[in-house]
Q: What sequence folds into this?
């Protein structure tokens, strides 16, 4: 299992010169995902309708673009993760400098995505969308991979890492609250997508994103430093890494669960725009949906720590997924539901879904520990990038399937009003598909993911013993 390598790669003790882990670190890590999601949620929620209704691109073409771009981003994640793992820690740490350097080109590329030059051909708009979207996605990897990996060097304490996961979710939810509450009011004029509104939103959220990234860099402290590997370790490192990843059942199962979860989240975000704009005829109601989703998550947050402490992460996440599946299934079968009724019932599904979404980053820490148990190598950047790879594949599938599905049910951006068949299809995409997907995630967590509360405690104990034995 490569246990002999544990001493060479084991994180060193915390530097006494650094201040103790505290609220600054939690807030700094929260601001990181706050900055990420100002653009990520803007893109996932509104870019498809921008491309179809402003650029006039077909939903099928947009689906293909999303599929290609996200698959490319998944490869970029792995490449960048391996690159980060080969870098030495500097004065300001190993990961923070990359967040600082790459955040500026990331935000600039994000604004460029929403630039509309009137009167150009469909071919020009298609090419411009393709180039700018792929550039933005690639640059997103250069910021998100070091940010996600940084949790493991801020603290080595499992409880503190779970706190970081919670604060990361809070950052994402705050960004979601702002974008979903304010975004529709800016980007839609008279219930139609407005090119100037989209550009204004991109600039505004871009400025806020940069401010959040700088706060993340300023407030977070990297305390844990892994010594350089010996030359003999480096030669066989990649082979050992790959073998460890293939044997890592917790990683593989959580990859599939996260892939499906992310795919469903992205699909709901994309379809909801059409659901409320066309099915309910009320695009501005998306603002209320965004607010309620955030409130549901914040209601769940204080319940997570005591429930995880008593029952375990796997246990509460699986129950939450089952509850969400039942709620979305109920929505599908409720006849003649109004906008208000849909939002109220949907809020319950969001509450159940929140438990998995809150603890998912703590799952990643667990599978990183299991990778170390199998290989003796602490490769936070690589393992995190593999996890991020699965999420990007989920995004790719969601973008591709979403575009094709919207087209398949008969959506036509040129029509003043959609056919009843198209509207019914959009409703099924927003309810029945999430119900089935969340049920599958529940089954994966219950029957495949092996790290129950008891087995995770045993893993933590075994790792501590191995590290102690190699000191």
A:
């Amino acid at each position: 299992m490569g246990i002999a390598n544990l001493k060479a790669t084991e994180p060193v003790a915390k530097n006494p010169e650094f201040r103790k882990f505290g609220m600054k670190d939690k807030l700094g890590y929260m601001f990181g995902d706050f900055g990420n999601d100002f653009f990520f949620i803007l893109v996932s929620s509104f870019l498809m309708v921008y491309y179809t209704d402003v650029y006039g691109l077909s939903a099928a073409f947009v689906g293909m673009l999303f599929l290609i771009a996200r698959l490319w981003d998944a490869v970029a994640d792995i490449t960048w993760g391996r690159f980060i793992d080969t870098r030495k820690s500097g004065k300001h740490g190993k990961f923070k400098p990359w967040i600082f350097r790459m955040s500026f080109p990331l935000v600039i590329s994000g604004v460029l995505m929403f630039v509309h030059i009137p009167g150009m051909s469909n071919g020009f708009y298609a090419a411009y969308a393709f180039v700018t979207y792929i550039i933005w996605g690639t640059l997103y990897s250069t910021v998100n991979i070091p940010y996600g990996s940084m949790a493991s060097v801020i603290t080595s304490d499992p409880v503190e890492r779970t706190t970081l996961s919670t604060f990361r979710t809070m950052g994402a939810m705050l960004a979601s609250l702002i974008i979903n509450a304010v975004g529709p009011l800016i980007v839609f004029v008279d219930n139609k997508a407005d090119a100037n509104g989209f550009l204004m939103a991109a600039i505004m959220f871009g400025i806020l994103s940069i401010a959040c990234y700088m706060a993340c860099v300023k407030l977070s402290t990297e305390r844990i430093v892994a010594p350089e590997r010996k030359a003999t370790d480096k030669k066989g490192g990649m082979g050992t890494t790959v073998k460890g990843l293939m044997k890592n059942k917790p990683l593989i199962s959580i990859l599939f669960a996260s892939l499906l979860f992310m795919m469903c989240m992205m699909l709901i975000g994309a379809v909801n725009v059409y659901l409320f704009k066309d099915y309910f005829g009320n695009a501005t109601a998306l603002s209320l949906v965004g607010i309620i989703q955030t409130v549901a998550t914040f209601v769940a947050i204080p319940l997570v720590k005591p429930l995880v402490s008593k029952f375990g992460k796997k246990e509460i996440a699986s129950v939450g997924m089952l509850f969400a599946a039942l709620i979305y299934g109920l929505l599908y079968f409720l006849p003649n539901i109004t906008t208000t009724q849909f939002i109220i019932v949907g809020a319950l599904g969001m509450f159940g879904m929140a438990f998995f979404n809150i603890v998912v980053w703590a799952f990643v820490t667990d599978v990183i520990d299991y990778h170390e148990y199998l290989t003796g190598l602490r490769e936070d950047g690589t393992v995190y990038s593999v996890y991020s790879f699965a999420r990007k594949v989920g995004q790719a599938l969601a973008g591709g399937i979403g575009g094709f599905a919207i087209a398949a049910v008969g959506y036509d951006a040129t029509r003043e009003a959609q056919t009843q068949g198209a509207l019914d299809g959009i409703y099924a995409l927003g309810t029945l598909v999430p119900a089935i997907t969340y049920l599958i995630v529940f089954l994966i967590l219950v029957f495949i993911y092996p790290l129950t509360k008891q087995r995770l405690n045993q893993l933590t104990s075994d790792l501590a013993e191995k590290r102690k034995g190699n000191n």
User: Anything to note?
Assistant: The longest strand covers residues 188-189.
